[in-house]
Amino acid sequence: MAYYVDAGAFNGDSLERMEQRLGKVTHAYLFEPELPAYYDGLKRHADRPEVFFYNFGLSSSYQKFTYRPAMSFDLLQEIDSPIPNDIVSYIQTIRLDDIITGPVTLFKLDIEGAEEEALKGAADTIRAQRPKLCVCAYHRASDLWKLLDEVKRIRPDYKVGLRHYSDLMDDSSFYFY
Question: What is the mean predicted confidence (pLDDT) over 69-93?
Answer without folding.
Answer: 65
